[in-house]
């Protein structure tokens, strides 16, 4: 969908990368490698997004690191579009709210880093009706055209894995985002 509105595939990938999870930052070469594109093509699109004020750039040593400008007036809308493009909003609406006592739901892995790999790693914390999840997930997978790979955790299991999950890029979809902060 985003590729229809944004004519440059590289620009669409950059918007997804940075606006899906605003804590994501990246270097030019890393982006070029990840997207399988030339550094020049990625640089042109980074510069356009910088000129529009959508991205920020900071020097780290001899390299520049890019990240979303969360203070831009369009940031909330662009983040919403990125989530809708990947279908995450549908996962939340159609699956999580009907599963029982869900305390926390988050996306980890590629999607949390803004990479559309076709696989959504979903971590659910609480007392989850797993059989109901499977029936709903199958329907949602058909809608979003991506495979959902769940990890079900009790509160105690989550507490044991909290630091490891917090050290990775995670995108909290449901519940208190502060629960991901280290204790």
* Element-by-element helix/strand order: HHEHHEEHHEEHEHE
Structural class: alpha+beta
Shape: globular
Q: In total, how many beta strands?
A: 7
Fourth-level CATH superfamily of the largest domain: Beta Polymerase, domain 2
Broad CATH class of the largest domain: Alpha Beta
Physical arrangement of strands within the biggest beta sheet: 6-5-4-7
Number of structural domains: 2
**Share in β-strands:** 15-25%
Structural account:
The protein is an alpha+beta fold and 183 residues long. It has 2 domains: 2-77, Arc Repressor Mutant, subunit A (Orthogonal Bundle); 87-180, 2-Layer Sandwich (Beta Polymerase, domain 2), CATH 3.30.460. It contains 8 helices and 7 strands; from the N terminus they run ααβααββααββαβαβ. The chain has helices at residues 2-5, 9-20, 28-35, 39-51, 75-86, 88-94, 130-144, 155-167; strands spanning 25-27, 55-60, 63-68, 100-108, 119-128, 147-153, 171-174. The strands form 2 sheets. It has a 4-stranded mixed beta sheet. Strands 1-3-2 form a 3-stranded antiparallel beta sheet. The radius of gyration is 17 Å and the shape is globular.
Helices, strands, pairings?
Layout: H1 2-5, H2 9-20, E1 25-27, H3 28-35, H4 39-51, E2 55-60, E3 63-68, H5 75-86, H6 88-94, E4 100-108, E5 119-128, H7 130-144, E6 147-153, H8 155-167, E7 171-174
Parallel strand pairs: 5-6
Antiparallel strand pairs: 1-3, 2-3, 4-5, 4-7
Which key phrases capture this entry?
Arc Repressor Mutant, subunit A; 8 helices; three-stranded antiparallel sheet; Beta Polymerase, domain 2; 2 domains; single chain; four-stranded mixed sheet; 183 residues; alpha+beta
């Amino acid at each position: 969908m985003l590729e229809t509105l944004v004519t440059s595939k590289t620009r669409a990938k950059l918007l997804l990368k940075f606006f899906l999870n605003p804590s994501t930052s990246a270097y030019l070469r890393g982006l070029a490698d990840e997207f399988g594109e030339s550094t020049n093509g990625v640089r042109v699109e980074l510069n356009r997004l910088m000129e529009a004020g959508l991205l920020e750039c900071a020097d780290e040593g001899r390299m520049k690191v890019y990240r979303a400008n969360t203070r831009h007036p369009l940031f909330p809308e662009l983040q919403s579009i990125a989530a809708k493009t990947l279908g995450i909003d549908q996962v939340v609406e159609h699956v999580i709210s009907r599963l029982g006592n869900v305390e926390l739901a988050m996306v980890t892995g590629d999607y949390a880093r803004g990479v559309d790999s076709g696989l959504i790693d979903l971590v659910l914390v609480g007392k989850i009706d797993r059989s109901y999840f499977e029936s709903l997930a199958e329907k949602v997978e058909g809608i979003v055209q991506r495979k959902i790979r769940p990890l079900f955790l009790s509160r105690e299991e989550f507490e044991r894995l909290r630091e490891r999950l917090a050290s990775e890029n995670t995108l909290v979809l449901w519940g208190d985002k502060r629960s991901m902060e280290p204790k």
